[in-house]
Write a structure and sequence with these properties.
Largest sheet: 4 strands, mixed
CATH class: Mainly Beta
Radius of gyration: 18 Å
Strand order of the largest sheet: 1-3-2-14
Number of helices: 1
Distance between the termini: 29 Å
Mean pLDDT: 86
Order of helices and strands: HEEEEEEEEEEEEEE
Number of strands: 14
CATH superfamily: Immunoglobulins
Low-confidence stretches: none
Shape: globular
Structural class: mainly beta
Helix content: under 10%
Length: about 190
């Protein structure tokens, strides 16, 4: 079994998308500007919050995740492109011009409505591109150089809804550095 030095060498020299830890009492995502670290609240939180699991999508350079509690029901939606800001680790994850946004999901019933909006703009219909996948245009060339909110809403044939919001960054092509983040920010705990 490798020691700590061997583990550090692996993490520092290999292209790692994310490091996951389960069986924890809290849920948090941290990005040090190079790697993403995910702790999933899988056994319940003594400070509040039910047990659950992470739903993760990873294909090519697209990486998305969400937390589902054991009590959650209905469809699941993940914004797979652009990357959520806390998951952005290189320049390719920053929107610098027009781009196709992508959403992937799962539902026991057919999706009857799939909508998207940027910031507080109007809701727009998404275009189905495959089995439980949708896309939509993001006018990255007209967005302000800033963080933006991308919001997706799905409704299935049983009238169950999935709604997810994601922060992404838009900037000029010559300013494309992601930055370290943590979500949620924890300022205190009763146990540490």
């Amino acid at each position: 079994m490798p020691g700590m030095a061997a583990w550090r060498e692996i993490v520092q020299t290999r292209p790692i998308t994310a490091l996951f830890a389960g069986h924890t009492h809290y849920g948090q995502i941290a990005n040090d500007g190079r790697h993403v670290y995910v702790a999933t609240r899988s056994i319940g939180d003594p400070e509040g919050g039910p047990a659950g699991y992470a739903v993760v999508y990873l294909e090519g350079d697209d990486f998305a995740l969400t937390y589902r509690s054991m009590e959650d029901r209905g469809p699941v939606a993940l914004i797979t492109h652009p990357r959520r800001l806390v998951l952005a680790t290189n320049a390719a994850h920053i929107v610098t011009g027009p781009v196709e946004g992508c959403v992937r999901g799962w539902s026991a019933a057919p999706i009857t409505a799939a909508k998207v909006r940027i910031n507080d703009g109007p809701w727009a219909e998404m275009r189905a591109t495959g089995d439980m996948t949708w896309s939509f245009p993001i006018p990255g060339d007209t967005l302000a150089k800033a963080e933006h909110t991308l919001e997706v809403s799905w409704t299935d044939a049983n009238k169950a809804r999935a709604r997810i919001a994601s922060l992404f960054c838009a900037t000029a092509p010559d300013v494309t550095n992601p930055y370290p983040l943590c979500e949620p920010v924890v300022r205190e705990t009763k146990f540490c």
